[in-house]
Design goal:
The complex is a heterodimer of chains A (126) and B (126). By secondary structure, chain A is mostly helical. Chain A contains 4 helices and no strands. In chain A, 77% of the residues lie in helices and 0% in strands. By secondary structure, chain B is mainly alpha-helical. The chains are: A mainly alpha (126), B mainly alpha (126).
Chain lengths: 126, 126
């Protein structure tokens, strides 16, 4: 380590909401990869046959499996909503200080709303 | 004439001029994944209650097959790009950073291949 002075460490600051959203974006991104692994396991099980699929499905039906699935769906929509915001930022818009928090709250509301809509979509006959 | 390799340039004077390509691919895959996310979320929530036959019929439906393959390829590509950024930001030991990034890329490419193979097997073998 060099001996040059350091800026105050991360723990000194109270994280602004934008920073909390940013780190949540990364955490959800990593968590989504875990879901992708489960997707691969599911597809391989179906390709393998009915018995193998049964084993995977019994996990999906268990309480931990259902919790994982719904946390994954929420993470998916959080990542999608904050990703849209990144795309807006990329155009050079949306950096006004007054609107930063409002958009962050909007993202949370939108991701909860989308997850709820997907939940109710289960009861529709397609 | 410049006799420096891109690696020497990155180590000494600046970037290897690959960064914007990575950035751009991340955006393109993000936009392509946007509609696919809704389709996948609505589809996977019924998985715990779907029979083996339901899942096979669902994967074999032509539009589902092509959307599923698109999601697998784009999703794993987007995940690789994102994980690389996270590793670059938090792993500061050079050799460990390179090994982790290569490892992540190899594992995710393998998983993507497995998912594509399983999907095609379900469609063509049943």
């Amino acid at each position: 380590m060099n001996k040059r002075p350091l800026s105050p460490h991360l723990q000194i600051y109270r994280l602004p909401l934008t920073a909390v959203m940013s780190i949540t974006h990364r955490i959800t991104g990593v968590f989504l990869v875990a879901g992708m692994i489960l997707l691969v396991v599911c597809l391989m099980a179906v390709a393998d046959g009915i018995d193998q699929y049964g084993a995977v499905q019994s996990f999906l039906r268990s309480a931990p499996g259902r919790i994982f699935l719904w946390v994954w769906i929420y993470a998916l929509f959080f990542h999608l909503c904050h990703g849209v915001r990144h795309l807006i930022w990329d155009t050079g818009h949306g950096f006004e200080r007054a609107t930063l928090d409002r958009y962050a709250y909007l993202e949370v509301v939108a991701s909860v709303a989308l997850t709820t809509m997907v939940f109710f979509s289960m009861f529709l006959n397609w | 004439m410049n006799y420096q390799t891109p690696l020497a340039r990155a180590r000494g004077l600046g970037s290897a001029r690959q960064g914007s390509h990575h950035w751009w691919r991340q955006r393109v895959t993000a936009i392509a994944l946007f509609p696919l996310t809704f389709w996948l979320a609505i589809s996977v929530v019924s998985l715990p209650n779907a029979s083996y036959q339901d899942v096979v019929v669902w994967v074999m439906a032509p539009w589902n097959t092509i959307l599923l393959l698109s999601f697998i390829i784009l999703g794993f590509f987007h995940a690789t790009l994102g994980l690389q950024i996270i590793i670059e930001d938090y792993v500061h030991t050079d050799w460990l950073k390179i090994v982790t990034i290569l490892g992540a890329k190899i594992v995710l490419a393998f998983l993507a291949l497995a998912a594509v193979f399983a999907t095609l097997r379900i469609v063509f073998v049943g």
